[in-house]
Amino acid sequence: MTRHSDPPATATPAPRLTPVTGTLHALQVPIPYPMGYVTVLIDTASPVTLIDTALDTPEARQAIEDGLHSLGLHWESIERVIVTHHHPDHYGLAGLIEERSGATVHMLDVDIARGEQYWHRWEEWLPGHSRHFLDHGVPEASMADHDQEARRSRARVRPATRVTPLHAGDTVRLAGLDWEVLWLPGHADGHLGLWQAGERLLIAADAILPRISPNVGLYAYSRPDPLGDYLSTLARIEALDPARAVVGHYGPVMDGVAERARELLAHHAERLDLLRASLAATPMHAYDLSFVMFPRDLSVSSRRFAVAETLAHAEYLRLHGEVGRRWDGRSWVYFR
User: Fold this and answer.
1) Within a 10 A sphere around the Cβ of 113, how many other Cβ atoms?
2) What is the pLDDT of residues 127-147, one digit of tens each?
3) Alpha carbons 331 and 333: distance in angstroms, whole number
């Protein structure tokens, strides 16, 4: 008689954990975006701290639970959450963690006043977001799924009921070390970074990334010059000259940080030159101009990101007196 063995049990993948320094660990958490993963930092020293929380999805919850368990922790162990910025892949589970553990949730004061409010007032603000894109040439047909996409994003965010502000220049204790709170705007108005001068270690999240340029877009609720903000952020990172940075995607840890900052500064300088030349030849609204900056085929939602980034560059030039804009009865047209 032939004996058949039971099929082997499917092994649970080991958590994607990377030691950073001392009690601080970087966990790669899956997200349903092209980047694949977002970095969530876990400090096992008291107060047990998470830096960023990923989206509220079953996959992210499981990955964080497994990461905590491998470090001898549980959801209830978390005492503090620090959120680098309000984007859903960084803020999504903050409210759930607050509910499960009673953890305090902290963000930069600038982000509490601006971006974090979006998740509480998003339905009130949604018409303004749509109008913003329409005013810059996006066809109405391309906005048909905007409300549905916003609802899908909102469903993956559990905002905290109470958020405690951090301020630029504050000191935060992590892994037995003192870290300076930095304001690193551009990718998000209130983007927070943490700097450990002795180790020359920067917790950068999405302020700087390997492989891709962080999206820097002008949205309905943005500060007026996000690209100008971001160029200043890159110059600051270059001056800090970190030995290493913990990044939000494609990391979790990168070196060559100052060199990457210089590459991104050069990248945006090239983008600005492209807009200068294009607008000198033909006046355009931001939607058409986005096909100059991003000529490849993009999904409807990705094209809106491209329009927002194009707008950030066009407004940078306008605010610096290099281009003008006029209302043509339906949308804003930029010219040189």
Assistant:
1) 13
2) 999 999 999 999 998 888 887
3) 6
Residue 217 CA to residue 225 CA, distance in Å, equals 9
DSSP strand pairing (80-82 vs 49-51): parallel
Q: Taking a C-beta distance cutoff of 8 angstroms, is the pair 306, 295 a contact?
A: no
Q: pTM, whole model, 2 decimals?
A: 0.94
For 180, half-sphere exposure in the C-beta direction (CA atoms, 13 angstrom radius) is 14
Angstrom distance (rounded) from CA 323 to CA 137? 17
Amino acid code (one letter) for 251: G
- CA dist 2 and 12 (Å) reads 30
Q: How far is CA 37 from CA 95, 106, 142, in A?
A: 20, 22, 28
Q: What residue ranges do the domains of the chain occupy?
A: 17-335
> In the CATH scheme, what is the code of domain 17-335?
3.60.15.10
Q: What is the pLDDT of residues 1-53, one digit of tens each?
A: 333 333 343 456 788 999 999 999 999 999 999 999 999 999 999 999 999 99
Contact 169, 181 (CB under 8 A): yes
Query: Tokens 């990457």 correspond to what residue?
Result: 260
